Amino acid sequence: MEGIVERIGAFALVGLGSGFASGLFGIGGGIVRIPIFVYLLPLFGVPQPVLMHVAVGTSIVLVLPSAVASTRKQLALNNLDLAFFRTWAAGIFAGALIRTALVPLASTKVLPASTKAFLRHRMVIAKVAPHGAVKLVLAAAIGCLAALTGTGGGTLTTPALQAFSVRLESAIATASATGLVTGVIATIGAVIGGWHARDLPAYSLGYVDLAIFIAMMPTILIAAPLGVRVGHWLSETWLRRVYTVLLFVIAADLIRKLLG
Fold first, then answer.
1. For the chain, what is the domain count?
2. How many angstroms separate the CA atoms of 60 and 63, rounded?
């Protein structure tokens, strides 16, 4: 009993941090959660062969409460363009399905690569929002990468849309809602993919650790709307500065682990 109580307490605190980041930046929170999971899960007896699978699988199911709470707040603030999001969601859905058809893959090398890609200065590809085939292909690529890395796709969506001159508030709102699609598809894949796996935590459904999910969901639902509100108050310049610092810190930690 002591082990499960300690696990719930530790991961409830992780939920506060990742939930706040989710709301603030429109990310699913996986970019924050997964490095912490990789550190904490072995302390609770999760063996190395399934460590990354459990970290990614549990992270992706936690995208859903983050996305629900953040999207509701973004709608209330009129930041989310539903007409734009409908076709964007179709591309995200297709990309997430493509990932589930691939051979299961989860590596710490995937995360630094996806993170470092967005540490560069902002690039402007076009002066109008993506549309037509370009929009669908871009969304599908993000959906596939999001499901692969256990994130909600927000880390990729926000800079990608900004490259098409979408204002930051709208890009973050679209990123928040993107997690609704990636979360559902990737969660199903994590459950099915780990259904017969060995050496999983006692309270697991496939690669999803249910004890961690139950511990983190309430704190994520509390923290995500707070993050949205703070992001609404901050200027675009300050949001970009804080987001860049976050990515640098996470990338540095992941690179350190790889080199170590």
1. 1
2. 5
